[in-house]
Amino acid sequence: MPKISKIWARQILDSRGIPTVEAACQLDTGEVAVASVPSGTSTGTHEAIELRDNDEQKYLGKGVSKAVGNVNDVLGPGVWGLDVTDQERVDSRLIELDGTPNKSKYGANAILSVSIAATKAASLATKQPLYLWINTLAKRVGIKGEVKIPTPIFVLIEGGLHGAGNLDFQEFHLIPATSKSFTDSLRSAVEIFLILGRDLERRGAIHSFGEEGGYAPNLFTNADALEVLYEAVKQTPYQIGRDVFFGLDVAASVFYKNGEYTIRDKSAPLTDDGLLEYYKYINSQYHLAELEDPFHEDAWESWKKLAESMKDQLVVVGDDLLTTNMERVQKGISEGSCNAILVKPNQVGTISETLKVVKVSRDANWKVITSHRGGETNDWFIADFAVGIGSEYAKFGAPNRGERVVKYNRLLSIEAELLQQKAQ
Ligand code: PGA
Ligand code: ZN
């Protein structure tokens, strides 16, 4: 029974240059595992609370020294001596110590850093690859299925809060066919991404890269972003609708104000019904495979309406709507709001709670998409997590920027490992 002998934390920087928490977990057997937590830019209102120092003199208020202190002084000592392979016990102790429903006392960032460090330490102690250990944890909560390399959802163009460009929709996705190997999927995405960059340059439309490594251009409309993507794919041997598909994370809460949605595609703001009609039009033009956060995060009625009319054609994904939160997921299931969940461990704060949300989503026959955040670190934990829970899809950004490719590269290596095992 490998026991936790020490936990300590430090403040490090995420990919945006904003402080985040890194924690280390040492076992009585000597192993040490280190984990760091991501942070959202377009965070949902219903997410667990990320504790920031709010001291304007330091990092413009964005420091996390209080969260780090909470790990060092309370959360770490609170789990010392526990069996690290009993993730449920470790996490329930963390939840108990915090005692608030949204982890606002010690911070979901502090709590998750310990939870993930423990998961990683347990994989070392049990001498299993991380994805296999996570699969063991998944089975413990009743998630069926073996490890599986997810189909990647690549973020090739960015707008909204993620880029300096002028698009309202947050992400424009390229999704390779589910039948492709990960290695081939990654190759197709890179080739299309490079051609896309060349095309945007020719149009004089490159503004910069967005937070997740995708291009953040200035274009006339949001639909134009799909058009440039379409044009780029047409220059490759890949066929839209056979080899690759398109998707959107609209992140509609960001441009929703006073009951209306303002987007550059339309001269006047749209109602929920007007926006639904526009999605139907976009879908008729580009045959989307997936649509995330089409309405604001509390527009339950509109979500239901959209799911009823479009869920046979595409995957309707709840991110800001659900925030990996059990109560909201249950409401989404009973109301038929979507048919897929975006899973982000830091929206809820522990690995055990994340696994339970995955289990409930699976039982409802929803697709599971494991996701990174706008602010990431070079920790590739989420790649192993996606494989371990057997998620259908994984969204880790563009095939660009270290903190994104580290996760895709990890999937490459897991795929090679699994192929090798199969051949033996
Ligand atoms: P976020 O974006 O991490 O900034 O919330 C990712 C997403 O919305 O999927
Ligand atoms: Zn999203």
UniProtKB/TrEMBL annotation:
<feature type="domain" description="Enolase C-terminal TIM barrel">
    <location>
        <begin position="146"/>
        <end position="423"/>
    </location>
</feature>
<keyword id="KW-0456">Lyase</keyword>
<dbReference type="InterPro" id="IPR020811">
    <property type="entry name" value="Enolase_N"/>
</dbReference>
<dbReference type="InterPro" id="IPR020809">
    <property type="entry name" value="Enolase_CS"/>
</dbReference>
<feature type="active site" description="Proton acceptor">
    <location>
        <position position="344"/>
    </location>
</feature>
<feature type="domain" description="Enolase N-terminal">
    <location>
        <begin position="4"/>
        <end position="134"/>
    </location>
</feature>
<keyword id="KW-0479">Metal-binding</keyword>
<keyword id="KW-0963">Cytoplasm</keyword>
<dbReference type="GO" id="GO:0000287">
    <property type="term" value="F:magnesium ion binding"/>
</dbReference>
<keyword id="KW-0460">Magnesium</keyword>
<dbReference type="InterPro" id="IPR000941">
    <property type="entry name" value="Enolase"/>
</dbReference>
<feature type="binding site">
    <location>
        <position position="373"/>
    </location>
    <ligand>
        <name>(2R)-2-phosphoglycerate</name>
    </ligand>
</feature>
<feature type="binding site">
    <location>
        <position position="319"/>
    </location>
    <ligand>
        <name>Mg(2+)</name>
    </ligand>
</feature>
<feature type="binding site">
    <location>
        <position position="344"/>
    </location>
    <ligand>
        <name>(2R)-2-phosphoglycerate</name>
    </ligand>
</feature>
<feature type="binding site">
    <location>
        <position position="292"/>
    </location>
    <ligand>
        <name>Mg(2+)</name>
    </ligand>
</feature>
<feature type="binding site">
    <location>
        <position position="170"/>
    </location>
    <ligand>
        <name>(2R)-2-phosphoglycerate</name>
    </ligand>
</feature>
<dbReference type="GO" id="GO:0009986">
    <property type="term" value="C:cell surface"/>
</dbReference>
<dbReference type="GO" id="GO:0006096">
    <property type="term" value="P:glycolytic process"/>
</dbReference>
<dbReference type="InterPro" id="IPR029017">
    <property type="entry name" value="Enolase-like_N"/>
</dbReference>
<dbReference type="Pfam" id="PF03952">
    <property type="entry name" value="Enolase_N"/>
</dbReference>
<comment type="similarity">
    <text>Belongs to the enolase family.</text>
</comment>
<dbReference type="GO" id="GO:0005576">
    <property type="term" value="C:extracellular region"/>
</dbReference>
<dbReference type="Pfam" id="PF00113">
    <property type="entry name" value="Enolase_C"/>
</dbReference>
<comment type="function">
    <text>Catalyzes the reversible conversion of 2-phosphoglycerate (2-PG) into phosphoenolpyruvate (PEP). It is essential for the degradation of carbohydrates via glycolysis.</text>
</comment>
<dbReference type="InterPro" id="IPR020810">
    <property type="entry name" value="Enolase_C"/>
</dbReference>
<keyword id="KW-0964">Secreted</keyword>
<feature type="active site" description="Proton donor">
    <location>
        <position position="212"/>
    </location>
</feature>
<dbReference type="InterPro" id="IPR036849">
    <property type="entry name" value="Enolase-like_C_sf"/>
</dbReference>
<dbReference type="GO" id="GO:0000015">
    <property type="term" value="C:phosphopyruvate hydratase complex"/>
</dbReference>
<feature type="binding site">
    <location>
        <position position="249"/>
    </location>
    <ligand>
        <name>Mg(2+)</name>
    </ligand>
</feature>
<dbReference type="GO" id="GO:0004634">
    <property type="term" value="F:phosphopyruvate hydratase activity"/>
</dbReference>
<protein>
    <recommendedName>
        <fullName>Enolase</fullName>
        <ecNumber>4.2.1.11</ecNumber>
    </recommendedName>
</protein>
<feature type="binding site">
    <location>
        <position position="395"/>
    </location>
    <ligand>
        <name>(2R)-2-phosphoglycerate</name>
    </ligand>
</feature>
<keyword id="KW-0324">Glycolysis</keyword>
<comment type="pathway">
    <text>Carbohydrate degradation; glycolysis; pyruvate from D-glyceraldehyde 3-phosphate: step 4/5.</text>
</comment>
